[in-house]
Amino acid sequence: MKKTVLITGASRGIGRAAAHAFARAGYNLIITCLKSADELTALKMELEQSCPVDVLPFVGDVSSASDMEALFEAANSRFGGVDVLINNAGISHIGLLSDMSLEDWNRMVGVNLTSVFLSCKLALPRMIHQKSGKIINISSVWGVAGASCEVAYSACKGGVNSFTKALAKELAPSNIQVNAIACGVIDTQMNACFTEEERLALMDEIPAGRFGTPEEVAALALQLAEGNDYLTGQVIVLDGGFL
Ligand code: NAD
Predict the structure, then answer these.
(1) Rounded-to-integer distance, Cα 11 and Cα 49, Å
(2) Which pLDDT score, from 0 to 100, does residue 143 have?
(3) Spans in the chain with pLDDT lower than 50
(4) DSSP 52-75
(5) Most buried of 1, 3, 21, 87 (most Cβ within 10 A)?
(6) Helix axis angle, 151-171 relative to 115-130, nearest 10°?
(7) Atom 24 of ligand 1: nearest residue by CA position
C-alpha cells in the first residue's frame, strides 16, 4: 500500500520541491495552495507523468477552518487518511512592529500558526487509529533566535517550534512523530523582496556562503518521514551555520 503525504503550500518553493521528492519516493500526494489552481494542476500532471502516483490538488486557505475541513474530507475520501502531514504554507511580513496593524498580525498568526493547529487536529484521528504518522512542520531560525523587523513571523515560528515539542510528547504513546525543520535562508520567492546587493550581503553572513535550496529542505523532510520512529519533538536547524 502506498503512503499518502499532504503538503500545504506546494505550488512553489519548498512545498513544490517536497512534492517532487515524495512523488519520487512513491507517495500519493495531496498538494495545496492559496489560489494558484493552474500551477497546482500543472504540478499534479508533472508528478503523475514522472512517477506512478496519484495526486489530489486542493486550493484553499490554511487559516480557514472550513477550508481545512473540506481539504481533509477530500483527502480522507480519496486516500483513506494522511500518513505524513507537512505543514509548509507560510507567509512573511517585514516591517517594524510599531507599524503593524492588528489585521496583519491576525493574518500572520492565522496562516503561520493557527493553520498548524487546524491541520494537526484534522489529521490526528486517523493517525491515532492506525497508531502511526509523521508530522513535519516547516519552521524558521527566526522562531529560535528572533529577528528584528520580523517580530510577528518570529513569534509564529517560535510558536510552531513549541507546538512541535509539546505535541510530540502528547503523541509519542500513539507512535506518531512530530518534528520541525527550522530553515535558514532558502532560495524561494519568499525572499524575492531582496535586491541583488542585499542577497550578497546576506550570503556573506552565512558560513556556508550561500542560501539553502528548497530541494535540501525537501530531502530532510523525506528523511524525517521515512526515518527513525524514536526521533520526535526535535526542531532541526537547517541553515548552513547561520545561527
Ligand atoms: P513561498 O512563498 O515560495 O511559498 C509559500 C506557499 O504557501 C505557496 O504555495 C502559497 O500558495 C502557500 N500559502 C501562502 N499562504 C497560504 C494560505 N493562506 N493558505 C494556503 N496556502 C498558502 O515560500 P517558501 O519559501 O517555499 O516557504 C515555505 C515555508 O518555509 C514557509 O512556512 C516559510 O515560513 C518557511 N521558511 C522559508 C524560509 C525561506 O527563506 N524561504 C526560511 C525559513 C522558513
Answers:
(1) 17
(2) 98
(3) none
(4) S--EEEEE--TT-HHHHHHHHHHH
(5) 87
(6) 10
(7) 13
Catalytic residue, candidates 58, 72, 153, 211: 153
The residue nearest atom 41 of ligand 1, judged by CA position, is 186
Domain count, the chain: 1
Residue 128 maps to which CATH number? 3.40.50.720
Distance 173 CA to ligand 1 centre (A): 31
User: 134 lies in a domain?
Assistant: yes
Residues with CB under 6 A from ligand 1: 8-15, 32-34, 61-63, 88-91, 111, 138, 140, 183, 185-186, 188-191
From 36, 115, 181, 183, the mutation candidate for ligand 1 (largest count of ligand atoms within 8 A of CB) is 183
Nearest alpha carbon, ligand 1 atom 32: 90
Backbone angles phi, psi at 36, to 5 degrees: -90, 70
In a domain, 193, yes or no: no
Give the domain range for residue 151.
Answer: 4-183+217-238
Residue 89 in domain = yes
- Answer yes or no: pTM beyond 0.90: yes
In 3D, which of 27, 35, 22 has the Cα closest to residue 67? 35
pLDDT of residue 227: 87
